[in-house]
Amino acid sequence: MTLITKRDEQITEFFTSLDEMQACLEDAQAETKPSLNGERYFTDQEVSERLKISRRTLQDYRNQGIISYIQLGGKIIYRESDLQKLLEQNYFPAWRDIEK
Predict the structure, then answer these.
(1) What is the pTM of this model?
(2) Rounded CA separation 99/7 (Å)
(3) How many domains does the chain have?
(4) In angstroms, rounded to a whole number, what is the distance separating the alpha carbons of residues 50 and 81?
(5) Which domain holds residue 56?
(6) 32-61 pLDDT, tens digit each
(7) Which member of 5, 8, 34, 72 has the greatest number of CB atoms within 10 A?
(8) Residues of the chain whose pLDDT is less than 70?
(9) Within 10 Å of residue 19's Cβ, how many Cβ atoms?
(10) Is 63 inside any structural domain?
(11) Alpha-carbon distance 67 to 44, whole Å?
């Protein structure tokens, strides 16, 4: 009969795996935004990072009526569904895909 202690290699690996899983779950939770009535909202910074544009360009898009937004006091937020719609409206398929 073998006595298993907390210093046993299998036990150490098991707890290391648990720690890694916990870290992954915490990262995923930190990146997930809660929804309001099933809709997620993003800040200027989040939208500019996702679209790879500057915040100034984002402001120009708002001023030109290109992108929809919500302004609450001095805070501006964007609905995920509005961003998705904007991307779909401005999608141009590759011309090689069209010919096939």
Answers:
(1) 0.61
(2) 64
(3) 1
(4) 14
(5) 41-84
(6) 766 777 788 999 999 999 999 999 999 999
(7) 8
(8) 33-34, 97-100
(9) 10
(10) yes
(11) 12
Residue appearing with tokens 């989040």: 46
- Give every strand in the sheet of 70-72, ordered side by side: 41-43, 75-79, 70-72
**Token couple for 24:** 């992954």
The per-residue b/e assignment along 39-75, b for 16 or more CB within 10 angstroms, e otherwise, is ebbbebeebbeebeeeeeebeebbeeeebebeeeeee
User: Does residue 78 sit within a domain?
Assistant: yes
59 in a domain, yes or no? yes
- Structural domain contains residue 62: yes
Q: What 3-state DSSP class applies to 43?
A: strand
Q: Which two tokens stand for residue 21?
A: 């899983």
Q: 67 with 78: CB under 8 angstroms?
A: yes
Burial of 34 (0-12, 13-18, 19+ CB in 10 A): exposed
